[in-house]
Amino acid sequence: MAAVVHKLLHHDHHANREPPSQSSQTEPSNQSGQSNQPPPSPHERQDSAMDRARDEEKHAVAQWDEQRQPLEPGQIEQDRKWVGHSSRVLRQEDFELIKTLGTGTFARVWLVRLANAREGDQHKVFALKILRKVDVIRLKQVEHVRNERNVLGSVAGHPFITTMVASFQDHDSLYMLLDYCPGGEVFSYLRRARRFNEATSQFYAAEIVLILEFLHEKMGVAYRDLKPENILIDAEGHLKLVDFGFAKKVENRETYTLCGTPEYLAPEVIRNTGHGTAVDWWAFGILVYEFLVGQPPFWDQNPMKIYEQIVEGRVRFPSAMSSDARNLISGLCTVDTSKRLGNIKGGASAVKSHAWFQHIDWDALYHRRINGPIVPHLRGPADTRNFDEYEPESDQREPYSNDMAEKWDEFFRDF
């Protein structure tokens, strides 16, 4: 993979070009044999070099999409990998906006294809997350956005985490170029099916275990927002974890920010006693329960009632649930973090060795050699049938003033 990307980024600029026409080979010249054309100015040479760099990077982006394969955990941690980098040459106009895939309070995600692409690159599609700086600042999300970009950059290449191919910015906005998952949210499939059977639940749960193992034990990152709405299905039927807005590098420290979705919050978050990566194992237990039952174990129309149920920590199981599944969920949804499965001695290995996962080939799963249980039916790489329709973006937007740029641009330098 690294060799392929190196070749893409450093190949001969003239290798794929047509030979020049006869007229372009014979410039008009004066009697001394020199061209009558004036030499390019330094500004023109700089613009030409920038255009070539942009063209090379767009081509490399397209080729990555074709060559993508899971990186080994050691490769993902390397600083020299190409995916996840901050681009100094890409611009929004390098992409054609096709359709909105999702919106938030300060971001919009578009399906895009490369604009003015080389032959063979025209049909490669991506998801482009656009965050307006004004809204990020107004909603006090600067630190969350920086965390998201930096975590996605550091984990790019994992087989079950959305790949941030590159990030870039302009005066008004921040951009994250991501791989496109045409299957849509796991949440939608779960609602249609009402609940997943045990085999489907085990497959999806096992891929999430591999995600949490990597985030916690390799990167020291707590994800903090695990739920079906943040898990997409790719074209081959595998999971991709998205939306790293609450993710934070905590390593062995505790953090105190109240964030997440009520039904999935761990007791220590509600009590505000400090939390770490153990919150993700609690949420994982809730998620497995919801896969098997169709709804989370703690629920009420009043969020305060949900919090009371969570802190009490009594999970009620339907009689039809297997004993291994009950045992797994009970171990994960343990109020005492020192006894919580995934957070006890052995970490993720203790989860992987649980009886409920006894038939999982973890190596084959990581390398995507096992077929997903739900493979989306697609008309092509740009199929958006699994995503909702959204209202157009408003034209009435507050500008990002020069005064704001002077104060805040230093915070966005990572992009």
Automatic annotation (TrEMBL):
Biased composition, class Basic and acidic residues, residue ranges: 42-69
Disordered as annotated region, ranges: 1-80, 381-401
InterPro entries assigned: AGC-kinase_C (IPR000961), Kinase-like_dom_sf (IPR011009), Prot_kinase_dom (IPR000719), Protein_kinase_ATP_BS (IPR017441), Ser/Thr_kinase_AS (IPR008271)
Enzyme Commission number(s) from the entry: 2.7.11.11
Stretches assigned to the Protein kinase domain: 95-357
Sequence ranges assigned to domain AGC-kinase C-terminal in this UniProt record: 358-415
Enzyme class: transferase
Record field: catalytic activity: L-seryl-[protein] + ATP = O-phospho-L-seryl-[protein] + ADP + H(+); L-threonyl-[protein] + ATP = O-phospho-L-threonyl-[protein] + ADP + H(+)
Amino-acid positions noted as binding ATP in the UniProt annotation, renumbered to this chain: K129
UniProt GO MF annotations: ATP binding; cAMP-dependent protein kinase activity
PROSITE patterns: AGC_KINASE_CTER, PROTEIN_KINASE_ATP, PROTEIN_KINASE_DOM, PROTEIN_KINASE_ST
Keywords in alphabetical order: ATP-binding, Kinase, Nucleotide-binding, Serine/threonine-protein kinase, Transferase
Coiled coil: none
Name the UniProt record assigns to this protein: cAMP-dependent protein kinase
Organism phylogeny: Eukaryota, Fungi, Dikarya, Ascomycota, Pezizomycotina
